[in-house]
Amino acid sequence: MQTHFLLTQNDIPTRWYNAQADLPEPLPPTLHPVTLKPVGPDDLAPIFPMELILQEVSQERYIDIPAEVLEVLKLWRPTPLIRAVRLEKALGTPAHIYYKYEGTSPTGSHKPNTSVAQAFYNKAQGVKRLTTETGAGQWGSALAMACNFFGLECKVYMVKVSYYQKPYRRSVMRLFGADVTPSPSEETESGRKILAENPDSTGSLGIAISEAVEVALKNEDTKYSLGSVLNHVLMHQTVIGEEALKQLDMAGEEADVVIGCVGGGSNFAGLALPFYRQNVLDGAKTRLVAVEPMACPSMTKGIYAFDYGDTAKMAPVVKMDTLGHDFVPPGIHAGGLRYHGVSPLLALLHRKGYVEAVAYHQIPVFDAARQFVQTEGIIPAPESAHAVRAVIDEALDAKEKGEERVILFNLSGHGFLDMGAYDAYLDGKLENYAYPEEMVQRALANLPKVEL
Ligand SMILES: *Cc1c(COP(=O)(O)O)cnc(C)c1O
Fold this sequence. Notes:
By secondary structure, the chain is α/β, with parallel strands linked by helices. Helix content is 42%, strand content 16%. The strands form four sheets. The protein has a seven-stranded mixed sheet with strand order 1-4-5-15-10-11-14, with helices on both faces. A four-stranded parallel sheet has the order 8-7-6-9, with helices on both faces. A two-stranded antiparallel sheet has the order 2-3.
């Protein structure tokens, strides 16, 4: 049986799909973090280059991918679509399971699909340096690579606990020439403020974003780059879903359900949005399922509200599913996906019923990853393992109902640099932890008071 569905380099999509053209209603405005009034392009110009700001609000259905960006994407694209036949057999399911494997990129995840585009537009505008935050280091590595290719300096604020516990992605970033600092740091006002309050702070994505944004705001030649959440990031990732549509066609199949894990929402959206387009424009009925950890349940337990993108309230305010901008993830959680919010576009589609969301405890997530390793041989990133859990449960449900369901998921990255998390699992050190409902309610009090 054929298991690999491969495209040639001539089949790489030449344009991105901008789902803003097909939303059930327009997205709420992005607000200034101080005035809480809608921002215009000029307000965002100190942080982002103009081309990306325009993409962020564009209503065009398609935007051409620049030739210089395609040239770099060709280092690893198109990625394979693989049928998980051995997993199907092990589960005894009549379901057909396919995965789009984004771990074949140089840094091991889907993230370079956007880092390359972002570095290109910054370089084209004459920017000299990009700053960013990173947790486990996937985004930092992807941006470091892209900056290296386009001749930009790269400054990464890495969440302190990861900086010390996950040294190898730090090495990857340094090898690409990036400057990596543990966050919170003494280098920025935001970092110093957090350290003054709590010298032992282990950091969070929200804090690291504040540091990176601050440096961009204070330096003329420096801009900031975000690896998820924003509309233009989701759009850059749609090459995944466009390729998958063609590959499923080669396999003679149509997807009944599309599944992806969700941190900020970019890998899930990258795969799912072209299927969303088929649903709304062509009457297809593919279910779109977003999977998140119980320890950071922004879609399943969060509040749909305007909130700050970062802890120090310097990043723009957007309406999203949020756990509150001062959310600090529990130390026991090993599976990544730790951002306090989710992409506004995804939050809207979720609230309007176009996207389903489920949350899983971490031990069953790692159980699923082990089953995937032992059947398909690939070690999923702990983030991607959330999707694997949901896929296995879908396949078992199809078995119970005797349905030949076609399941497609995004294997957003490999886990070769995340073996510490797997060790913790194998050594029985993981505990299931659900973020308490009261904490979400408490976060409500700190949301910005927005009057539009
Ligand atoms: C960063 C990352 C994620 C989560 O980010 P999204 O923007 O939600 O995709 C998921 N999987 C991998 C492998 C990642 O590196």
